[in-house]
Design goal:
Keywords: Antiport, Cell membrane, Ion transport, Membrane, Transmembrane, Transmembrane helix, Transport. This protein has about 450 residues and is mainly alpha-helical. It has helices at about 5-20, 25-35, 40-65, 65-80, 90-110, 110-115, 125-135, 140-155, 160-180, 190-220, 235-265, 265-305, 305-335, 335-340, 345-380, 380-405, 410-440.
C-alpha cells in the first residue's frame, strides 16, 4: 500500500484537526473572556472558571484517552488492510467510557466544595466554583462520546467531519455564552457564571448529536454495541490504562500549578487562568500536526513502512517548530490587546503581562513535545509515554516548582517550571523514536 506522506496530505489532515482541536480551549477561553468583562466580582469569576476548567480538563484528558487508543488501533488495521476486523470496537469503547463518565458525575457532584478547596479556593471563589461545576459536569458524558467518535474518524484518516462538529459546537457556545451570561433585556435575565456553564453543556450535547449523525452517515462503523468483545479490547484497555496513568501525572502538574497560583491571591489566579488557557489554545493549535502524526504514524507502522515513518517525523518537526514560532510572534504582536480582551482589571493584567512572554517562548518547545506525543500514540507505544511523563512530572516539574517558589517568584515559578517540564517531555521522545526506527530502515 502506497501511503501518502506529502506535505499536501499532511496539511489536509492537520489543518481540519487543528481547527477541531481548538474547540475545547475555545469553550474555556470564551467563558473566561465573557465572564471577565462582567463588572461584578471579575477576578473571582475568572478565578472560578480557571479552577473548574483545570479540574474538568483533568477529567476529560484522563478519560478522553480513548481517542488516541481507538485511533491507534484503527489506523494500524487500516494500514494492514484489515479494517473489517475492528469495526465493532468503537461502539464497545464508547459504551465503556460513557458508563465511567456517569460514575464520575455521581462520585464528584456531592463533594464539589471539598474538591475545589483542594485547589485553595475559598469564599466567593469557592461559591462560584461550585455553581459553575455543578452545571458543567453534566456535559462530561457528551464530551467523552464526541472524543471517542473523533478517535474513530482519525483512525479512518478523516479529520474533516470532526472539524465541522467542533466549529458548530464552538460557535454555539459563543452565542449562548453572550445570551445567557449577559441576558437579553425583556426575554432572558443575566445568569452570569451559571449562564456560561449552561452554554457549554448545550454546546457539548449538540456536538455529541452531530458526532453520532456523521459517524452513522459517513462511515460504516456501527454505534450499536455487539458482543462478544472485539479481540483488540484488551489491547485497547491496556493502552487506555497506560494513558490514564500518564494523564494523571500530567494533571498532577496542572494541579500543583493551579494550587500555587491560587495561594498567591485572586489577582494571581485570575492572571494564571488567562495565561494557562492561552497556553492550552496554543497546545491545541499545535495538536493539529500532532494529530496528523498520530493518524499517519499508525498507518505507516501497520504497513511496516519505516523509512516513510522517519520522513514523516522530519516533516512534522519542521511544521511544528515553524507553527510554534508563528504563534510566539503573533502573541508578541498582540501582547497587550490579548490581555485586555479578557479583563480590564489593572492588577490582573499586570500579573498576566509579567508571565505571558514565557508562554509565548514555550511554543516551539511545546510543538516538539506534542507532535512526538501524537506519533507515539499512533504507534501504540503508550508505556513509553507513561514512563516519561511520570519522570518529567515528579523528577523535574514538582521539584523545580518548589525550588523556584522558595525564591518567591510566584507566577514566574509556575511558568518556568512548566517550560522545563516541556523540555523534559519532548527531547527524550525524539531520541527514543530515532533509536527505535532508524535501525529498522536499514533492514528494508
Amino acid at each position: 500500500m502506497n501511503i501518502d506522506i506529502s506535505s499536501k496530505h499532511i496539511n489536509r489532515l492537520a489543518i481540519p484537526a487543528l481547527i477541531s482541536g481548538i474547540s475545547e480551549p475555545i469553550l474555556s477561553l470564551t467563558d473566561a473572556a465573557i465572564i471577565g468583562n462582567i463588572p461584578i466580582n471579575t477576578a473571582e469569576s475568572i478565578a472560578a472558571v480557571g479552577i473548574v476548567g483545570t479540574f474538568l480538563s483533568m477529567l476529560i484528558w484522563i478519560f478522553g484517552q480513548t481517542r488516541s487508543a481507538i485511533s491507534s488501533i484503527i489506523s494500524q488495521y487500516l494500514g494492514a488492510n484489515k479494517i473489517n476486523e475492528v469495526k465493532n470496537l468503537p461502539a464497545q469503547a464508547i459504551l465503556i467510557i460513557t458508563s465511567l463518565s456517569l460514575l464520575i458525575i455521581v462520585g464528584t457532584y456531592p463533594f464539589t466544595n471539598s474538591i475545589f478547596k483542594l485547589y485553595n479556593a475559598s469564599g466567593l471563589i469557592l461559591e462560584y466554583c461550585s455553581e459553575y461545576y455543578k452545571i458543567r459536569v453534566f456535559g462530561f458524558p457528551f464530551t467523552l462520546f464526541t472524543i471517542a467518535v473523533f478517535g474513530t474518524f482519525r483512525g479512518l484518516q478523516n479529520t474533516f467531519h470532526p472539524m465541522i462538529i467542533a466549529v458548530v459546537g464552538a460557535l454555539t457556545n459563543i452565542v449562548l455564552d453572550i445570551v445567557l451570561v449577559y441576558g437579553v433585556e425583556g426575554f432572558i435575565a443575566p445568569m452570569h457564571i451559571k449562564g456560561a456553564a449552561y452554554a457549554s453543556v448545550v454546546a457539548q450535547l449538540l456536538m455529541a448529536l452531530l458526532s453520532a449523525y456523521f459517524i452513522l452517515k459517513k462511515t460504516d462503523v456501527p454505534l450499536m454495541v455487539k458482543l462478544p468483545f472485539n479481540k483488540e479490547i484488551k489491547n485497547f484497555s491496556l493502552m487506555v490504562l497506560n494513558l490514564f496513568v500518564r494523564t494523571l501525572a500530567l494533571n498532577i502538574t496542572l494541579y500543583f500549578a493551579t494550587r500555587f497560583a491560587t495561594a498567591y491571591g485572586k489577582n494571581y489566579i485570575a492572571a494564571y487562568t488567562i495565561a494557562i488557557n492561552l497556553w492550552f489554545f496554543g497546545a491545541f493549535v499545535i495538536d493539529g500536526y500532532a494529530s496528523a502524526g498520530n493518524i499517519l504514524s499508525g498507518k505507516l507502522f501497520g504497513a511496516k513502512q519505516y523509512s516513510d515513518l522517519i520522513k514523516l517525523s522530519n516533516t512534522l518537526i519542521k511544521y511544528g517548530i515553524g507553527l510554534g514560532i508563528v504563534l510566539a510572534i503573533l502573541g508578541g504582536i498582540l501582547y497587550y490587546p490579548i490581555g485586555r480582551l479578557f479583563t480590564q482589571e489593572t492588577a490582573v493584567l499586570d500579573e498576566f503581562y509579567s508571565v505571558f512572554w514565557i508562554v509565548l517562548a514555550m511554543q516551539p518547545l511545546c510543538a516538539l513535545a506534542f507532535i512526538f506525543d501524537g506519533v507515539f500514540k499512533g504507534l501504540g507505544k503508550m508505556k513509553i509515554l507513561r514512563n516519561l511523563l511520570l519522570a518529567s512530572t515528579f523528577l523535574v516539574f514538582v521539584p523545580t516548582l518548589f525550588l523556584l517558589d522558595n525564591y518567591n517568584l510566584k507566577l514566574h515559578a509556575v511558568f518556568i517550571a512548566l517550560t522545563i517540564w516541556i523540555i523534559a517531555r519532548g527531547i527524550p521522545l525524539i531520541i527514543k523514536f530515532r533509536k527505535l526506527f532508524l535501525p529498522l530502515t536499514q533492514k528494508q
